[in-house]
Amino acid sequence: MNTKTNITFRLMLLATSALLSFVTSAGTPPFEGCISKGCVGVIDNIYLHRDGSIKFPPPGKVVKEPTGDLDCKLGEGVYFTLKQSHPHFKNIYSMLLTAHSANKEVFIRIVLGSKDCQVDYAVIY
Questions:
Q1: Along the chain (125 residues), what's the average pLDDT of each consecutive run of 10 residues?
Q2: pTM tops 0.70
Q3: Strands 105-110 and 80-82, how do they pair?
Q4: CA torsion angle for 54, 82, 113, 36 (degrees, to 10)?
Q5: How far is 27 from 17, CA to CA, in rounded Å?
Q6: If both were cysteines, with which of 23, 58, 78, 113 could 39 make a disulfide (CB 3.0 to 4.6 Å apart)?
């Protein structure tokens, strides 16, 4: 290997190592259960509603289990809702499916005061 190739290879290794350490260090949720702005936990069920929205119980919660001080009204008294009009609908839906398949915890941030506890954003752990 010439010097230029060797330096490029080492820089790529360093960048990959830095990225992997960032990804693995972001693996701890900020809290457990639900607080006013969202919930952390595993997603047990995902429903595709006829209106095109995605509905799922708050992460880590069993249907009809109290969700603490959530600052929103659960859809049908049970569900968080990801509206098809959300600018990142496909990305968040993909993330939810991935988290569900891999049994990973997620943090779902809701839009405060929203009807149907609309999803603002999601983080996978």
A1: 62 50 57 90 94 94 68 93 97 96 95 96 94
A2: yes
A3: unpaired
A4: 90
A5: 16
A6: 58
